[in-house]
Amino acid sequence: MGLYDRYVLPRVIHFACGLKPTMRQREKVVPGARGRVLEVGIGSGLNLPFYDATKVDKVWGLDPAPELTRIAGRAARSLPFEVEFIGLPGDEIPLEDGSIDTVVVTYALCTIADTSAALRQMSRVLRPNGELVFCEHGAAPDANVRRWQDRLNPLWKRLGGGCNLNRPIPALIEAGGFRIRKLETMYIPGWRPASFNYWGSAVPR
Known about the structure:
By secondary structure, the protein is an alpha/beta fold. The chain has helices at residues 3-17, 20-29, 66-76, 115-125, 143-159, 169-175; strands at residues 35-40, 56-62, 82-86, 100-106, 126-137, 178-187, 196-204. It has a single domain, classed as Vaccinia Virus protein VP39 (Rossmann fold), CATH 3.40.50.150.
């Protein structure tokens, strides 16, 4: 890992993912989490203020980047529920089958290398009545924006720590073994190639 990845990129991610339009999106979905929660790609903990402490028993935060989870750990100290961090990627979830009520994933499916494997793991740990709550940016519906997403994606991916601009989020979630129950979309304020958002909920098939 180079100096950029270790020292610069975590701060860039924390800043970019904490902009007001993105935080408003987090506020739409995260309060829906309940019970025993697994957050995949917890990063610097930007979702933590939005959990409803009256509904959440515990949050497991999965992320392979210690530079980011150190920031999240500081935010977690003031919360009225326990947060346990797991330093692994999304396709390695060391929790028992059917042990989680809600999986939360926000702005992480753009970066996970093997989304199908990660989503199968999320499905495995969910209880029969469990739910995946998600919010992601991805492929835009407008052809001209998609063309820019495709052109810029190789450079963006290198500079953004593996983030992809052009992933078809609903198709990826369904390919990972989920049935989408609720889906909303819109361009949020910001740079259009990175601002088309998908959010909602899904259940294992």
